[in-house]
Amino acid sequence: MTGSSDQAIVEQVKQGNAEAFGLLVRKYQDRIYSTILHYTNSVDEAADLAQETFVKAYSGLARFNGKSAFYTWLYRIAVNTAIDHLRKKPSVRVDSLDDDRYREAGFEPSAGRSSDPVHVLANSEERRLLGEAISSLSEKLRSAIILHDIEGLSQEEIAAVLKCPVGTVKSRVSRARCEIRAMLGEYLERM
Amino acid sequence: MNRDCERLGKLISDYVDDNLGDRDKSFVASHVAGCESCRREVEQTRKLVGKLGGFSGNQAPYDLWSGVSERIVAEQYRRRGLLERLATFAARRIIAVPVAVATASVIVLLAHPGKDHTPEAKRDAIAESTAEYKAYMQAYSSFRSRQALSDPAAIAAAAQLQHNNQGAP
Fold this sequence. Notes:
By secondary structure, chain A is mainly alpha-helical.
């Protein structure tokens, strides 16, 4: 993620070149969508919230002062948007994971076994269980593990996104892993 | 669970992420070599992190940007509409306030006309004020008379005057 080029584009947008914002959207749309998808477990909601994230970013770009990297600022908006959305829902149904998610989630069975229905089913079941386990975590632990273990952000980047110390991020990731391990212990043995 | 297992529990996450210093790393390596339970925990954490890493890479819908740009335009129109409504409202206020003030002034003038300066009006005013003055003077004289009749000093003075008049040749 190149912060300096992002900043240049941000300046262009601030000067009235709205089309330049499209470059930022295209650059980060997959990551933002993917991150939100792990909160909502619904492709439609994730797409809608990803759009909302970018609209919010565009509207608030004047307030972005460049002290942090653009993408950490963007991730922060995405995480807050997703969490706000979940809070507004009457209850988070962890069993609402639809098959679309697995079809559209970019799941690719390993080479040579793609035609094996048992393998495909096992992978699908694996993803469902892991998704449910993540959904059952608290907001803070969920954000930490999604950004760290799934999206691959560094602890420093997550600290900037979540606005908390790096030590807190480290602790949350560790606790989240521990909780998932406790939930899926036996299943993890068989993976 | 002994103290080493407890210590290892705190280090597992960093160990799997390869974020430990040499000393802690060698502690974990030597401990798991002899502790089946901790070795299993390390292996489970490794598998978990590996599986979660495979969750990434979801692709956004191809038309995400077009949706975003539509929303941005809609938002701009909404804001512009809001600004226009505000401007219209302000313009109406700017026109309406002077009109209201002028209307109120006319009503006040009609309800309370100023002094009439025609000669006839002056004459009537003088006549009215003369009649008022005469009525006042009559009332004042009557009051002074009644006051004199009730004043003991005035009564004594009047009696003395009458007596003097009677004694006079």
